[in-house]
What we know:
Blueprint: E1 5-18, E2 23-38, E3 44-45, E4 47-55, E5 60-64, E6 70-71, E7 74-75, E8 80-88, E9 96-99, E10 124-128, E11 134-135, E12 143-148, E13 154-163
Parallel strand pairs: 2-3
Antiparallel strand pairs: 1-2, 4-13, 5-12, 6-7, 8-10, 8-11, 8-13, 9-12
Amino acid sequence: xxxxxxxxxxxxxxxxxxxxxxxxxxxxxxAFGWDVAAGVAAGQANxxxxxxxxxxxxxxxxxxxxxxxxxxxxxxxxxxVKGIAIIAADANTTDVTxxxxxxxxxxxxxxxxxxxxxxGAGDGFAFWRKGAGITVTAGTGDLIYVTNAAGASAxxxxxxxxxx
Length: 164
């Protein structure tokens, strides 16, 4: 397998203000990330996975990274997760929350039952740990939950990169 590419974030912001006597411009321009190389060492990956799911109202999408996920190339069973991205669709009318379940959760958040702030329409979460990554322990440390609030279904895309 030859996984290559880039995971990153680019921030390019400009704040231009005018007063009676002067103009002031503040600018932030920063790009950072991980240039993914093929392999199994630090900074490398050999497995990717992506899916979009419709989560029913008040439902949970359970991502079992050591279990039943498949991609275009077949089974996607991770032993190490190095990157996670979760994106809520622009058309969603409910919030979704990404969390680590108390039991069997992948330790990408500090403690079991930890969750990110709810994400609204078009919001997203990206995390990468390009060195050693996060070790997956099948049956005890391999789940990521994406929970939809009550009110309507929500579409969510999840992307994972790591080692098989």
